[in-house]
What we know:
- It is a single chain.
- This protein is an alpha+beta fold.
- It is built from eleven helices and twelve strands.
- The chain has helices spanning about 10-15, 25-35, 40-55, 60, 75-85, 110-115, 120-125, 140-150, 170-175, 210-215, 225-235, and strands at about 65, 70, 90-95, 100-105, 130-135, 150-155, 160-165, 190-195, 200-205, 245, 250-255, 260-270.
- The strands form three sheets. A five-stranded antiparallel β-sheet has the order 8-9-12-11-10, covered by helices on one side. A four-stranded mixed β-sheet has the order 1-7-6-5.
- Helix 2 packs antiparallel against helix 3 and helix 3 packs across helix 9.
- The protein is flat, with a radius of gyration of 25 Å.
Amino acid sequence: MIKKNKFKLIPKMFKKIVQPKNKEELLVLLQKAYQANLIDSDSLMMLEGVFSISEMQARDVMIPRSQVSFININDSLDTIIDTAIHTAHSRFPVIDEDSNNVLGILLAKDLVRLGKEKGLDLRDVLRPSVYIPESKKLNVLLKEFRSNRNHMAIVVDEYAGVAGILTIEDVLEQIVGEIEDEFDYDENEDNIIQEETTVFRIKASTEIEEFNDFFKTNYSSSESQTVGGLVISKLGHLPKKTEPIHFDGFDIQVLRRDSRKLYLLRFSINLDSVDQDILN
């Protein structure tokens, strides 16, 4: 009996493999690979993110000008340090009164030099500003960030006005999800931390019953079991990190999240406008 050469079977095997003809078909194959447990959910999310940034523009993920923490070149060093401590950012656009007039970028670590070296002016430690149009593709911007070793860009509109800012972290988060920042998520930390008289840092996983006990509210746990679920149900979607959130007299800021869930929130309470219907 003549045995068939097993290597002749290889081309027939490859004929059965579906060859994607475009990006959409490739994404479908990746999703099927996930369903077949060939890749995990994090890998699928990152692969989808790689494809998405090639289609996204700076305007899609930038922090709008109204939400940027600018530093005024004319402010005192104490005021600048207070701003850096309160916002806990590592980089700040420095302006001269007008937010359209960005003089450069201040690194928080350079504030130490300003405090120690007498006679050193703020202008002496500023890093050059990088300007990009709102239409800049994120994949191109990421290459430029890497090659130029830049971490922040000023986004300008068609009239050369400042539309917002964009950091390398903002771009990378489109691929890998939310990157841990200055707000470390400590599993052993209390669920509700008071920062100021009416300002609280709250884990999104905090149960509604605990939230109700602490703030003397009466939200229903049958509708939302956690504080994160409450915020999402009020908005109808997973909020972005820069998205302003207001309901029932609460001003809420997202401190930590990823592409799927919330982790950490800051609640500021306006006692004069709290909805009395939610109070006991």
